[in-house]
Amino acid sequence: MTEASLDVVGIGNAIVDVIANAEDAFLAREGLVKGTMALIDAERADALYQMMGPAIEASGGSAGNTMAGLASLGGTGAYIGKVHDDLLGQIYRHDITAAGVRFETPAATSGPGTARCLILVTPDGQRTMNTYLGACVELGPADIDPETVAAARITYLEGYLFDPPSAQQAFRRAAAIAHAAGRQVALSLSDPFCVGRHRAAFRDLVAGHVDILFANEAEICSLYETNDFGTAAAAVRRHVAIAALTRSAAGSVILAAGVEHPVAAATVARVVDTTGAGDLYASGFLYGLTRALPLPICGEIGSLCAAEIISHVGARPEIKLSQLLAEGGA
Hints:
alpha/beta, UDP-N-acetylmuramoyl-L-alanine:D-glutamate ligase, nine-stranded mixed β-sheet, five-stranded mixed β-sheet
C-alpha cells in the first residue's frame, strides 16, 4: 500500500448556504419542521428566499463544511461535489479552495444551477434547512476521481447526497476504490428523514461498505427503527469498526472493538446557531483519527470543533481551529 498523500476526501452536496434568523411562528406558518432538512424545488426556493429576513451567504454543504474544518485544523483534504458553471458555483469553488481544500470536480455547463440551502435559525439556535439541490443531483460515478480517492486515508461520504440513484452508485464506486487501495470509508447519516427515505439502502451501505459511521441519536435510531438509543448502539456495533454517535449537550459516544468511550460536550457560553455542529464534530474526529490519536481524544477534538461552530452564525469556523486546539483543546 502506497503512502497516503491526503488525510480525507469528502464527497457531498456542494451547496451555498443562505442563513437568516426566523421566529417559530414563521416555521409553523410555512409548515416547516424545526431542526430538520427538507428538499424543495426551484420555485419553493425562490418563494422562501423572498420571505426570509436579511441573510448571510456562505459556501456550505455538510461534507464541504467538514473538509473546511479539517483544513482549519491543519489537515489535508480534497472535495468531490457538483456545481454549475454559474456565479454561485464560482463562489463555492473559490471559498472551499481558499479554505485550503482541493476541489477539482469539473463544473456542469448545462442543467440545473448550483445548489442552495435556505437555513432558518430560531431563537433557540436550532436550524431548519430547506435545500434546493440543483446541480448536486448530477453527481455520479464518473465524477469520482480514482486517484484522489486512493490517495486519501479516509473517504468521507455525506448522507444528504444519497437521494439520487446516481449518487448511491458513486458512493459504492468510491468505497470500492478506497478499500482496494487499503483505505477506510466513513459515512455521515446526515438526517433522520434522509435515513427514513432510504433505510434499506443505507443499511446495506453501512454493513457492506463503511468502516466509520457518524450519526446523531435521531439518525442512528431511525436507521435501526427503534426509539431506544442503547438498542441502536448495540445494533451498529455489528456493522462498522467505529461508530461516533453524537447526543447534543450530552456529548458523544464512540463505539469500537467492543468498548464504549463516552465523551463530554465541550463548554460553550451560548448556543447561537447549531448549523454544522455534526459536520465540525466529524472534522475534529477525522483529524485525530488520521493522526492515530486515541479514540476518546478524537471525540474531544470533535466536541471542541462543534462548540466553536455553534457559538456563532454559520457552518464554517470563524477562527483557526488549529489555534483553538493548541490553546487548550483536547
